[in-house]
């Protein structure tokens, strides 16, 4: 076990004991408690997203779009972005789940789901990054990124700051305080009009849009995640980590892959919430745990077959769930750095074929794992503790991209 991760877990447990014992006991004396969980599921081939009550499996709403959608939930959980890259448009769905923090407890207000009257259009929107009270939308072929205020969205307005990405490319933008971390394309290489230039690094932009310092090298930059106050990016050379540094802007550090690692790189990253760490892929049949504050930053975990999807459990910070193409669901203990149990949850879904072929996707809701099974028009619900299927939710068509929103809070 890495010392810093163990320390983070102990601190998390101590804080949880202080925050969630006496205060919630007092909150329960004066307030009723309610709980609500909702799934949002996009179809693989039809331009539609469905909102589903997780408790009873009933459809709460069906939202017709213009194209195939990938779903991203905001940091607050109040909105879901339905990004339709092939249709050059993004719709926004109100989840009807609204938490407000009151220090010793949080309130939960539940309302109807709905399609907001605001859309975002541009050439090939792709990566959407939720962060605090806003989301950052990157347009691969539009040469721009947009920082979108969520509160304005919920009022039916657009409050957007637009960033110039220098040249159209498949990139990403992330805010860090008043600064923006923005992928940098190769502006010198000549490309076919149908091709996008390669990414060569990361730029830091100040509040006025001016670049600070030189471009930090990060060949083939792809994948980003935030954990605590750090932001990480996957690169050919290693993982690039940005830290807030006050007056001088973010501090950028490259964590090179160990020389002992096999050939490969990280292109998808997830960030821990209760603990500071990152989980990334390393090629197709391995994952890597990254602790930027450790002397040995990387731990490689081999999988029996190729990875189909993976995610972290925000409520149980030790757990990561990895679905492999043989249909097995693996539980990775991020402290031990080991697969601690597994179970078969779907039939095999091969990674061969088109990258966007219909394959299962994962979400976590109320201590359970929701797994889309597009071949059988189902969302399979698996108990996170036992890995046993508890029920299924029938979903018309080919359920594909999925996100879960919800929790418990005091009700007034």
- Residue share in helix: under 10%
Summing up helix and strand content along with how strands pair, one would put the structural category as mainly beta
| Strand order across the largest sheet | 3-2-1-34
**How many strand segments?**
34
- Percent of residues in β-strands: over 45%
Shape: globular
Terminal residue distance: 44 Å
> What is the averaged pLDDT score?
91
Radius of gyration: 21 Å
Count of helical stretches: 3
**In terms of per-residue confidence, which ranges show pLDDT below 50 for 5 or more consecutive residues?**
9-29
Tell me what the structure shows.
- This is 40-residue YVTN family beta-propeller repeat-containing protein.
- Residues 1-27 form the signal peptide.
- The protein has a domain at 1-30.
- Helix content is 8%, strand content 49%.
- It has helices spanning 3-20, 22-30, 150-154; strands spanning 32-43, 48-53, 59-64, 70-73, 79-84, 89-94, 97-101, 106-110, 114-121, 125-131, 134-139, 144-149, 160-164, 173-176, 179-185, 199-205, 216-217, 224-227, 230-234, 238-243, 251-256, 269-271, 278-281, 286-290, 298-302, 307-312, 319-324, 328-333, 338-344, 362-365, 368-373, 378-383, 389-394, 399-411.
- Strands 3-2-1-34 form a four-stranded antiparallel sheet.
Task: Briefly summarize what is shown.
By secondary structure, this protein is mostly beta strands. The protein has helices spanning 3-20, 22-30, 150-154; strands spanning 32-43, 48-53, 59-64, 70-73, 79-84, 89-94, 97-101, 106-110, 114-121, 125-131, 134-139, 144-149, 160-164, 173-176, 179-185, 199-205, 216-217, 224-227, 230-234, 238-243, 251-256, 269-271, 278-281, 286-290, 298-302, 307-312, 319-324, 328-333, 338-344, 362-365, 368-373, 378-383, 389-394, 399-411.
